[in-house]
């Protein structure tokens, strides 16, 4: 992934530096407002990363030690780690093969009386079935956190992914379409949740540092609870505001490139590329292919692509197979293990040319014979 950063972002960052206000301030407030409006949420709360956004989401939902939180193993490890940050127990659910996402059935298979929440991931930008999973979570009486790290610009049922979520967490890491270098966001519709999230990210203060310094009168702040330092800087937010203006164009371009991949890859036996689900559209933050009956193993394919100058990556990791979770014995996760073992991610970025794509596919076609 090569982020699209140009002179506008450089100028915006420089303007923030020249303003003298580089910590969390007015640009963060503007970015929160504009991003929330873009994804159909009432409130945005900027954070230092999506990982910290997930952590705060679980804190504001009062998830505690003794609680179980169902998560997909097929996700970046931060999804499961956030559960451990609050002392709760992550329970790994399997996913469906076409999208890499959890379903009502895979969640229900591992649900217990201790289940207090579910973290459902819009994996690689592919939206999960929001209508079905939200309805199920409501019926079970559990909280639903939407890990939308990769999903800015994706849609579900004609709405932005994350719209209508109780709480959603977003990433602005350079691997995402919209980047601030590092950074994240929590979006919510509940005003009380937004107020507490803002307090939690700033040491538990009852008034933000920006508001305190902007006041013409002395402000004696109070610290209402033990909290965190998870703030975004105004320099990052300045870049994010420019990036937000590029988002629609970036999604359109990536979908054009993905359509070209689908055309070129058609007819190669044993190779299944990711596609839009019936209920929405992906932003193609990642373009992965599954090598189910391919004559060559995934690692050998990666090695040959590298030898031919193509920087591809292994597919999405499975957290339960990592040493950090060696103490967890999950229920069987056959689809997760199949996807993480047999998939790879092809290059997809704004600088990718038609010749690049033809070369990449020619290498895959040669290996399929």
UniProtKB/TrEMBL annotation:
Protein's name in the database: DegT/DnrJ/EryC1/StrS family aminotransferase
InterPro entries in the record: DegT/StrS_aminotransferase, PyrdxlP-dep_Trfase, PyrdxlP-dep_Trfase_major, PyrdxlP-dep_Trfase_small
Family assignment from sequence similarity: Belongs to the DegT/DnrJ/EryC1 family.
Co-factor(s): pyridoxal 5'-phosphate
Any one GO MF annotation of this record: transaminase activity
Keywords per UniProt: Aminotransferase, Pyridoxal phosphate, Transferase
Pfam family, one: DegT_DnrJ_EryC1
